[in-house]
Amino acid sequence: MPIVPSRFRASGLFKDPHFSTIYSAKIRRVKGITQTRERIELPDGDYIDIDWTIAATPQEGNIKKVAVLLHGLEGDAQRPYILGTAKLLSNHGYDVAAINFRGCSGSQNRLYRSYHSGDTGDIRFVVNTLVTRAYSHINLYGVSLGGNAVLKYLGEQDHIPSQVTCAACIGVPADLKASLEQLIKRENIVYRTSFLVHLKAKYRKKMQQFPEKMNKEDYKKINSLKRFDDLYTAPAHGFEDALDYYARASSFDYLDKITVPTLILNAKNDSFLHGDCYPIAQAKNSNIIHLEMPDHGGHVGFYMKGEFYYNELRTLEFFQKNME
Fold it and tell me: What Å distances lie between residue 264 and 121, 164, 168, 250, CA to CA?
């Protein structure tokens, strides 16, 4: 324990992993939510943008709670899976700080580096900033890449602020190499092609900023996600190569060091996940890691009738339970 039996049941076309994934990412719309942007200056001279949704209901007594939301690869704080979560949590008394990773808020970040799956420094800085703003409860929520970063942050720190209460992570590639091996399968060509198109566009823009570090010759060599990580992610963020990046940035080896209650919700038919992305042994030996593996849901496609998705309702339930 705790391997958590799942109450989620998909129906109809939503049993298909590709339909549930694509519908949830491209067709779903979340209405009736307001975001206000705050730019946070970082110690290294760069910045990140946070999109705030303030609690729609008054916070009670001395409890002042905030949820920090982190998106996936080449996402942003306007993705449906972020907006749906932000709306639900704000309706239940949470301020919501939806982080846009460096370079993901619609404008280029200033430095050669940007963000990656194991980048925890900016999470640490934001959490510590929220502590100074007198939040008594800080809950973390990460999706896909953002979930891996949250888990690694929780597991690598010698001291997590006591205000960090719990976390929920959805569709988490806890083993980055295993996730890549899954994505390069023939049936996942749509996803990896989409990612590669966005990443190559980012490379072109970066190349204009840093022509002394990036060039057209290398750009022409980017024909896979691994090649992008070899030519940009690794050198920009202090890794030897892509394989070194996958090994050091994966959250899998940090899970047994996590000390706050954490939910991992990974569908068994998630096209992005494989192998150790399902940390079954770690969860069985833990009182902290709660691993839930529904049969269906694809990659963050836990559709339910009504306004909110299962992963959002399940996150609220987990947060509320661990506020008691």
Answer: 21, 17, 6, 15
